[in-house]
Automatic annotation (TrEMBL):
GO molecular function list: RNA binding; rRNA (adenine-N6,N6-)-dimethyltransferase activity
Matching InterPro entries: KsgA/Erm (IPR001737), rRNA_Ade_Mease_Trfase_CS (IPR020596), rRNA_Ade_methylase_Trfase_N (IPR020598), SAM-dependent_MTases_sf (IPR029063)
Superkingdom of origin organism: Archaea
Domain called Ribosomal RNA adenine methylase transferase N-terminal: residue spans: 11-168
Protein family according to the UniProt entry: Belongs to the class I-like SAM-binding methyltransferase superfamily. rRNA adenine N(6)-methyltransferase family.
Keywords: Methyltransferase, RNA-binding, S-adenosyl-L-methionine, Transferase
Name used for this protein in its record: rRNA (Adenine-N6, N6-)-dimethyltransferase (DIM1, yeast) related protein
PANTHER family: DIMETHYLADENOSINE TRANSFERASE (PTHR11727), DIMETHYLADENOSINE TRANSFERASE-RELATED (PTHR11727:SF7)
Positions contributing to S-adenosyl-L-methionine binding: 6, 29, 50, 73, 88
Pfam annotation, one family: RrnaAD
PROSITE patterns: RRNA_A_DIMETH (PS01131), SAM_RNA_A_N6_MT (PS51689)
Length: 233
């Protein structure tokens, strides 16, 4: 369950500062409550979802009028509306959590994830299915890196703090269609686009998937959708 616990109150305060004025907040995986305690003190109205029932039991000692603790898997949670979502989330399910978040309404989300995952989502250098899927859903900012030394037990990787803000999705095709195109593209990422798709804009024909911009990929998906085809060679 990715149970490494942040030891630095200063870093936890930095994360809470990124949220903004106190409002309603959903916390994913409160653990021993390093973030939760600060949220309680600052007057946020908190819903905290912890999957582990032993940790959930310990958390009962934090009892506060503005804290609602729930013992369940965040991935099974019914979507709701919060001002903010925060969490130092388990590394192994970062991707499902990031995409589940999209079902919720929120102004800003602050999450701590594995450094490499954060970089993959934040920077286009290594264009990927994950990057495009994240960027059609969110504005993404990598705020800072956090050394593994700040956790107990110490993990084998460093972390980074991401801020996600939801974007309005305005493409004419469903997100699932786009993902199908991305799967096709990135499973053949060394090939030229003209060798992946039957239909492809002329100016992109000689490019490879990893050299495209998000807007070029969205344009290509639009063309494929309009032509009723995502057929590959
Ligand atoms: C990386 S630890 C962080 C704990 C705490 N927020 C901190 O910063 O020290 C992740 C926490 O998420 C909990 N967790 C793991 N999978 C979960 C899930 N699917 N839904 C809710 N909580 C989960 C773990 O039990 C653990 O408490």
């Amino acid at each position: 369950m990715g149970q490494v616990f942040l030891q630095s109150r200063r870093i936890a305060e930095y994360e809470v500062d990124l949220l903004g004025e106190p409002g309603t907040v959903l916390e994913i995986g409160p653990g021993h409550g390093v973030l939760t305690k600060i949220l309680v003190e600052r007057g946020f109205k908190i819903t905290a979802v912890e999957k582990d029932r032993y940790i959930f039991g310990e958390l009962q000692s934090l009892r506060a009028a503005n804290l609602n603790l729930i013992n369940m898997d965040f991935l099974d949670m019914a979507p709701g509306s919060y001002d903010y979502i925060i969490g130092n989330i388990p590394y192994s399910i970062s991707s499902p959590i990031v995409f589940k978040l999209y079902e919720f309404e929120f102004r800003r989300s602050v999450i701590m994830v594995q450094k490499e995952f954060a970089e993959k989502i934040a920077f286009p250098d290594d264009m990927s299915r994950l990057y495009v899927n994240a960027h059609v859903r969110y504005n993404v900012e990598l705020k800072r890196y956090v050394s593994r030394k700040n956790f107990n037990p110490q993990p084998e990787v460093d972390s980074a703090i991401l801020v996600l803000e939801k974007k309005k999705y305005e493409e004419p095709y469903p997100l699932e269609f786009l993902d199908g195109v991305l799967v096709q593209m990135f499973s053949k990422k060394r090939k030229k686009l003209s060798n992946i798709f039957d239909i492809c804009p002329e100016d992109l024909a000689d490019k490879r998937p990893s050299n495209l911009t998000v807007s070029e990929i969205l344009g290509l998906a639009r063309l494929l959708f309009d032509s009723g085809s995502s057929a590959h060679r």
